[in-house]
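Appendix B. Raw example, untouched.
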Amino acid sequence: MTKIILQGIGLTSDSAQKIAEKYDMALNIKNSYYQLHKNIQISSFNHDDLNNLRVTYPFDINLLPHNYNPNQIKLFISDMDSTLINVECIDEIADYVGKKKEVSKITESAMRGELDFKDSLTQRVRLLAGVSEYILQKIYETRIRLNPGGRELLSVLKQKNIRIALVSGGFTYFTDLLKQKYDLNFTLANTLEIKNGKLTGEVTPPIVDATTKAQFLLYLCKELQIETSQVIAIGDGANDLEMLKTAGLGIAYHAKEKVQKSAQIVLNHCSLDGVLPFIGY
């Protein structure tokens, strides 16, 4: 079976029909997306075809992996910064002390995979030495929001009894608050060292990096007694790549180019509720 999912605000029935006709596929119109399908594997359809379609049309086009079953998913694991939420928390902290430009430059380079994540995090956190813990609370209250579609996605995941994990190269200060507010099942992140109510500029080891994220996914699979094929992982930066490759389905969400080239599913036009077709909703 070959299945292609089309979705996004730029999607039209005419465009969907053109793609269906080009590959001689049946077209099903769902509630919020279109599905093209054929009862056999289309051996001639490859990643070049997929990339060409993505360049041609202003909506998300994704080929489901062979034998992928959306109804088998038991765990959804998400990156935090710029994936589940709308900002990079470390950049927002830096903004409060006039160092956002300097810190953001390092963040962007790390997310593109140009810098070692551990080294880049150490560099950035050192620039924040002396920041009051009160600033972290202000950032959470005034700047951090779920990305569009996030509430809908979390609601459906809970309806389907899919466990939700939040893993981040960011900080436990924020993941803990988000876990409590949105009733998430698992979280893992870095711990900022705080003394006398101020950041020391250090991170308490060990640092959560790309390998740690993938290992966390495997640990949760063992705890839940499920297979990696029953996991969806989503992220946007290079430090998410190992996790995306380990999961049964890896989703690049408005991601850096390096991540988009490696992920099975790419969402550039949809909001977070664009994940819903991949969990059988």
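End of appendix B.
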